[in-house]
Design a protein that fits this description.
Bound molecules: heme C
Number of strands: 0
Helix content: over 70%
Number of domains: 1
Radius of gyration: 21 Å
Shape: elongated
Structural class: mainly alpha
Strand content: under 5%
Largest sheet: none
CATH superfamily: Cytochrome c/b562
CATH class: Mainly Alpha
Order of helices and strands: HHHHHHHH
Length: 160
């Protein structure tokens, strides 16, 4: 009887440890309240990117321009952050994160600008740069969530 209880305890402990490991953690160590705002912003950006695919395919310059502009200024966070959350971001976001984020917003601005010029090649170029920024940032800082980036490049692995 005792033995059964011990086995039960050990297996539930193992289960608890496993559950804790499975829980996606935030590699940047942001608090939940900041993370909620960041995720809201990310989901807005995702919607914008998705809508751009057809706006581009159909030559809808106005929509591309507006979407680029909106993403450039998509600081849901900035507007909603409390002072202490701002301090938190300042303390926790690595320089490289800020660098990628800055470029991403720059590319969104450029997308908007070249859409105004109706330059489809440059629109494509800046859209690709924006997409590259998502991958760059996520593969560096969000691999807990986007596990595909943990696996490494097969080409590189086969090179040696
Ligand atoms: C400078 C860094 C950075 C860039 C650039 C970036 N992201 Fe993210 N993204 C994050 C971080 C950090 C998280 C995780 C947030 C968290 O869990 O607290 C995230 C999470 C997400 C999520 C999941 C949100 C959720 O509800 O859990 C989506 C969707 C997303 N990003 C889409 C995008 C798309 C699309 C792009 C490019 C157009 C992009 N992101 C560019 C940093 C970035």
């Amino acid at each position: 009887m005792k033995k059964t209880i011990i086995v039960f305890l050990i297996s539930s402990l193992a289960y608890a440890v496993q559950a804790a490991e499975d829980k996606p953690e935030n590699t940047l160590g942001l608090s939940d309240s900041v993370s909620v705002l960041l995720k809201a912003e990310m989901n807005e950006i995702k919607k914008g990117m998705e809508s751009l695919v057809f706006a581009m395919a159909s030559g809808n310059w106005k929509q591309i321009q507006e979407t680029g502009h909106r993403i450039k200024h998509s600081y849901i966070m900035k507007n909603k952050l409390t002072e202490s959350q701002k301090h938190e971001l300042h303390a926790k976001l690595p320089a490289q994160f800020r660098e990628i984020d800055k470029k991403f917003h720059y590319y969104a601005g450029m997308l908007s600008h070249v859409a105004e010029e109706r330059d489809i090649e440059l629109v494509n170029f800046y859209f690709a740069k924006m997409n590259e920024s998502c991958m760059h940032c996520h593969s560096k800082f969000v691999t807990n969530r986007f596990e595909g980036f943990r696996q490494g490049n097969k080409h590189e692995q086969h090179d040696h």
